[in-house]
Amino acid sequence: MRLLRNFLLFFILGVSTISCSEKPFYEKVYSFDGNEWTQRVKPSFTVDVKDIEKEYNFIITLRTTTDYKYSNLWIYMNTITPDGTKAREPFQIQITNPDGSWAGIKTGTIVEHPLQFNKRKLPKKGKYTFILEQGITESKIDEVLDIGFRVTESISK
Fold first, then answer.
1. Which of 136, 143, 149, 154 has the fewest CB atoms found within 10 Å of its own CB?
2. CATH number at residue 64
3. Is the dihedral of CA 91, 96, 97, 98 positive or negative?
4. What confidence tens digit (pLDDT) does each residue in 76-95 have?
């Protein structure tokens, strides 16, 4: 029992330390109605960048239930820069490992799947809009709770 208590104490302290050291520059979560992500729903996140000398970390976090039936999820990230330039990139979020275990962090019936891009520079000052689309052939995906978009300033070491 004492070992479990010590583990929980160190875990809580570790999470607190990590979360305090990386305060988000931007953070927003989009929740899906009825836990369904349909093709017509495209969560949008607008980030106002004032300092182009800094590097930023981008984290997309998908949360599903344990009833999600696929081993991955392809998403498209559409980026619109301050001058209106558009780009579209595909990304895969790994949901399960090859052995069927969860690739993300499982808590009860919820699994959190992060996709992280570290130390990215943005070329222009102004508002960047990031629009996420689900990229599968079915019209909807069930058991998707929400998707978060977080930007932190990269700390050089």
1. 136
2. 2.60.120
3. negative
4. 999 999 999 999 999 999 99
